[in-house]
Design a protein that fits this description.
alpha/beta, Aspartate Aminotransferase, domain 1, Aspartate Aminotransferase, domain 2, 2 domains, 7-stranded mixed beta sheet, 4-stranded antiparallel beta sheet, 14 helices, 15 strands, about 15% strand, binds pyridoxal-5'-phosphate
Length: about 425
């Protein structure tokens, strides 16, 4: 996998050209039953599953019904183990550095709360943080007396790497960053942050929930100790799937808060041994039908190639952003040196929910992101809520034209 280029801190990155041929888009759509029903621009919420994913999940669920859950798991053992290999290939790590989860939040929380915080420890984070992460920081402050500090943005709206570097000292226990926020096209400079964290000896946790599946994310190149992501968003997997990556060298610096008979072995009445690999963060029970669907989604993404997906998604979103920005009364809100597949906008005088429901009535799926999901960023910009249109590689120019037309009509309705 080609590594993600590190953006120069001062220049807006040039937009890549579309990388899918019309035939490839047609094939992607033919493999996606939902494409015949809706124009789906809610890929940052949950993308449409390809039939390969649907088939893998349904096949296993049927097997469970017909032969019993344990027996079905034994029959599918090789494929179930293969999910770890696929995840490791996607992220460029080893299979024993992967734990499979039921959501990104579960993965992130298990990683975060395993950091052995001491009073006075500093946690450095960014303006783009997701609400669930920030609630956990506040909890850690209450419970462990850690100091949570938000590193300011630079002039492009991404985390200031210079400010981060200046804030580092030996009390910084953790640098915790959101790669792509839930409310916009920003891509934070994760690899540059990784260098700073590594040099200072701090742990580095990356929330890659919105980046994995749309961008080429390489954990070695980024240099993170822990990374969490979900299945249902850009990876196109069933809901209720996700993963945690933990770098081998970081495992012994973390204390898992939940150890069951899968994460550890009860070796004597007064003793237990923790698993040597990242699966110490898992517990025994799992939804194998969903997990196999997750594996099929990982393989599907790998079969296109992540650099290719990244170019297609990034270029479609850039086009959409430009066309929305030309509509009188519409404001596009995405920031950053580098931008991804998420586009956010508002229509003057029309509530975001109203825009979304207008579009939904025309078969156009978008979503709304409100202030309480990313409070620091939204308050700083004076935004209450934004409409979020997130593209995937299966979206077409015709769908984008329909979306732009519908938004134009929405904006026109409120203008004299
Ligand atoms: C969606 C999202 C999450 C939460 O993912 P779940 O799979 O719902 O737990 C975390 N962080 C970011 C940035 C997100 O967009």
């Amino acid at each position: 996998m080609t590594p993600t280029p590190i953006p120069s801190p001062n220049a807006q990155q040039s937009t890549p050209q579309p990388s899918f041929t019309p035939e490839e888009v047609a094939r992607a759509r033919a493999d996606t039953p939902g494409c015949a029903k809706v124009a789906h621009f809610n890929n940052a919420g949950a993308a449409l599953m390809p039939r390969q994913v649907l088939d893998a999940s349904v096949r296993h669920l049927r097997l469970e019904a017909e032969m019993g859950g344990y027996e079905a798991a034994a029959r599918a053992a090789e494929d179930i183990e293969g999910v770890y290999d696929s995840a490791a290939r996607l992220l460029n790590c080893d299979r024993d550095e992967i734990a499979l989860m039921d959501s990104a939040t579960r993965a992130w929380d298990l990683a975060f709360f395993s950091v052995p915080f001491r009073p006075g420890d500093r946690v450095l984070t960014s303006m783009a943080e997701y609400a669930s992460n920030f609630i956990a920081y506040l909890q850690a402050a209450e419970r462990h007396g850690v100091r949570v500090e938000v590193v300011p943005n630079d002039e492009h709206g991404q985390i200031s790497v210079d400010a981060l570097r200046a804030a580092m000292d030996e009390r910084v226990r953790l640098v915790s960053l959101t790669h792509v926020p839930t409310n916009g096209g920003l891509v934070n400079p994760a690899a540059e942050v990784g260098k700073v964290a590594r040099e200072a000896g701090a742990l580095y946790l990356l929330d890659a929930c919105q980046s994995v599946g749309q961008l080429a994310v390489d954990v070695r190149e980024i240099g993170c100790d822990m990374l969490s992501t979900t299945g249902r968003k850009y990876l196109r997997a069933p809901r209720g799937t996700g993963l945690l990556h933990v770098r081998r060298e970081a495992l012994d610096r973390l204390v898992p808060q939940v150890l069951d008979l899968h994460a550890a072995t009860w070796t004597a009445p007064d003793r237990y041994e923790v698993r040597p690999d990242a699966r110490r963060f898992e517990t025994w029970e799992a939804n194998y039908a969903a997990r196999l669907g997750f594996g099929a989604a990982l393989d599907h993404a790998l079969s296109w190639g992540l650099p290719k997906i990244q170019d297609q998604v990034t270029s479609l979103a850039a086009t959409l952003r430009e066309r929305l920005g030309e509509i009188p009364g519409v404001r596009v809100h995405d920031r950053g040196v580098r931008r991804c597949g998420i586009t956010t906008f508002t229509v003057d005088g029309v509530a975001a929910e109203r825009v979304a429901s207008d579009l939904a009535a025309q078969g156009l799926n978008v979503s709304v992101s409100g202030v309480s999901s990313t409070r620091l960023d939204m308050e700083e910009r004076g935004l209450e809520e934004v409409v979020r249109a997130s593209v995937h590689y299966y979206n077409t120019d015709e769908e984008m034209t329909a979306l732009v037309r519908a938004v134009r009509n929405c904006a026109r309705a409120t203008r004299p």
